[in-house]
Amino acid sequence: MATRIVLGASMASTMLVAMPEPARADAFLEKPGEGKIILLSTFDRADQYWTRDGRLIPISAYSKFSLSAFTEYGVDANTTMIGRAEIGRLDDVSGIEAQGAGAIGVRRLLFDGGALRVAAQAVVSAGAGLEGMPFRATGAALDVRLAIARTFSLAQRSAFIEVSAGPRVVTGDGRGLRLDATFGLKPAEKWLLLFQSFNRFNEAGPFGDRTRAHKLQASVIYDVAEKWSLIGGVFTTVAARAERRQQGLLAGAQRRF
Q1: Is the CB of residue 43 less than 8 Å from the CB of residue 67?
Q2: How far is Cα 144 from Cα 149, in angstroms, rounded to an integer?
Q3: Closest by alpha carbon to 9, among 198, 209, 251?
Q4: Within the chain, where are the H helices?
Q5: I need a labelling partner for 55 at 20 to 30 A (CA). Which of 89, 122, 213, 237 fits?
Q6: What average pLDDT does the structure give for the chain?
């Protein structure tokens, strides 16, 4: 449940504006005929649980390791196709089980104001494991979002802020809401720092209650070559209701094509 780069999501990154050392954000589109592939490994664990009244209590240890592949491809100047697949291993009090899931979607630019842009995104996913699915779910989910992003300069460095929100509908589960925010900064030509907040509301939790959870993530993307980048980061749940307190690490690579 923790993999969202770009997460959400995610770490999907595309150029913002034509400026030196451009920052990147997923509210923007891939150029026609171009794209990227992100390969990511994520490990998260939890040994505490937030009760409905906000208290932290100990629980049996939970851990998950996953490998995911995320791709984007520019169909035309205003449309980008999105795909994702994930396999993982979940280990908790119920035992060890393998998980696998896939997703496909589209992102469409709605408004281009230069430094200010607006995009809509819809993603359909199926199987257990992907972010957006309830705990151990095997059905299908639809995640619809509206994203607004603004680029600017901070201490003469390229930066951006992006906010995205929308409902997530799951078969047999009803509807939840996602609200995410990302701040990106390029402190040097080859480096991109990302500070993100992922927020889930009114979703089915691991113990039957309706949950909310607020997670913070910090990550870095380093360009090792013209088309290759390395990714690393950490995350933790800072507040929640009827949900585990998760924390973990992520690492991977990105290739543009």
Answers
A1: no
A2: 17
A3: 198
A4: none
A5: 89
A6: 84
Distances (CA, A) of 134 to 77, 101, 221: 34, 12, 29
Residue linked to tokens 């997670």: 215
Query: pLDDT tens digits, residue range 220-245?
Result: 999 999 999 999 999 999 999 988 89
Burial code (b: 16+ CB inside 10 Å, e: under 16) for 8-35 equals bbbbbbbebbeeeebbbbbbbbbeeeeb
Beta bridge partners of 168: 143, 176
pLDDT of residue 126: 87
- The residue behind tokens 């390229």 is 158
Q: Are 63 and 56 in contact (CB under 8 A)?
A: no
Q: Tell whether pTM > 0.70.
A: yes
User: Which tokens hold the place of 48?
Assistant: 């505490």
Q: Which residue has the tokens 């950490």?
A: 234
Amino acid letter, residue 38: I
Integer Cα distance of 145 and 141 in angstroms? 13
Where are the strands (E) in the chain, listed by range?
6-7, 10, 14-15, 24-25, 35-50, 56-76, 79-92, 95-112, 116-127, 140-154, 157-170, 174-188, 191-204, 210-223, 228-241, 243-244, 247-256
Task: List Cβ neighbours of 36 (8 Å cut-off, separation of 6 or more).
Answer: 12, 13, 30, 71, 72, 254, 255, 256, 257
Flag whether pLDDT at 7 surpasses 70.
no
Contact in structure between 95 and 83 (CB atoms under 8 Å): no
CA atoms of 27 and 171, how far apart (whole Å)? 27
Q: By the 8 A CB rule, do 194 and 184 touch? A: yes
